[in-house]
Design a protein that fits this description.
Blueprint (H helix, E strand, L loop, with lengths): L1 H14 L5 H9 L20 E4 L2 E3 L2 H11 L6 E5 L5 H8 L3 E6 L2 H14 L4 E4 L12 E6 L8 H5 L1 E12 L4 E8 L5 E9 L14
Bound molecules: S-adenosyl-L-homocysteine.
């Protein structure tokens, strides 16, 4: 049942313009219902964000698709995710063959999702803390994805990007954001493209918003 529902959802996402087959394949395989609270399971295959407790949400599937497509992940890439949340985005990246490092600032959510990763056998490196300053001991990263909205692009994250690496981050005010895709051309040079109109929960930390 859920597999059929999932395929219908992914077909509709493909219909909305997601063309990267690797992204669509991973999304057909990862069971989103496992990443949402029991009460929300009947809604797991609707293309909407859902509450996961702690005032946070699991992103809308279409948003996960567009961000992952923009990230252009290759097998074996070292990927840093800021905002683990439910763990769904990290699971998609792992399914695509990336080496995933993910940071969540909310301790209870961090522990809950850590348990879920263990239960589902998802191998990712996790950390509880402020992701706006990155994870320097593991830098540089081939890809960095920020799944919460930021007022700006944190310098630490740009600095932890490998040459030719890509960073995808929603930037804007607290209500709506533009998805920025940053490519590191050289040690000093970065190229920035924009994909308009998104709405994420706020990124809170030293190099982002300072409170909820
Ligand atoms: N990728 C998640 C989306 C979660 S919503 C998923 O697939 O479910 C964004 C998450 O970012 C929230 O859990 C929030 O607590 C977290 N967050 C906000 N600011 C952060 C920061 N500075 N460092 C790490 N996590 C942060």
């Amino acid at each position: 049942m859920s597999k059929t529902e999932r395929n219908i959802l992914i077909d509709s996402i493909a219909g909305k313009g997601i063309t990267d087959q690797k992204v669509l394949k991973a999304m057909r395989e990862v069971e989103r219902e496992k990443f949402v609270p029991l009460l929300m399971r009947p809604n797991a295959y609707r293309d909407i964000a859902l509450p996961i407790g702690y005032e946070q949400t699991i992103s809308q599937p279409y948003t996960v698709a567009i961000m992952t497509q923009a990230l252009k992940v290759k097998k074996g890439n070292k990927v840093l995710e800021i905002g683990t949340g439910s763990g769904y985005q990290a699971a998609i990246l792992e399914k695509m063959g990336a080496g995933v490092y993910t940071i969540e600032r909310h301790n209870d959510l961090y522990r809950k999702t850590q348990k879920l990763f263990d239960k589902l056998g998802i191998r990712v490196s996790t950390k509880c803390g402020d992701g706006t300053i990155g994870w320097s001991v593991h830098a540089p990263f081939d890809r960095i994805i920020v799944t919460a909205g930021s007022p700006d692009i944190p310098e630490s994250l740009k600095n932890q990007l490998a040459i030719e690496g890509r960073l995808v981050i929603p930037v804007g005010d607290k209500r709506t954001q533009t998805l920025k895709v940053v490519t590191r051309i050289s040690e000093q040079d970065f190229e920035i493209e924009s994909i308009p109109e998104f709405a994420f929960v706020p990124l809170i930390g030293r190099e982002a918003w300072d409170k909820e």
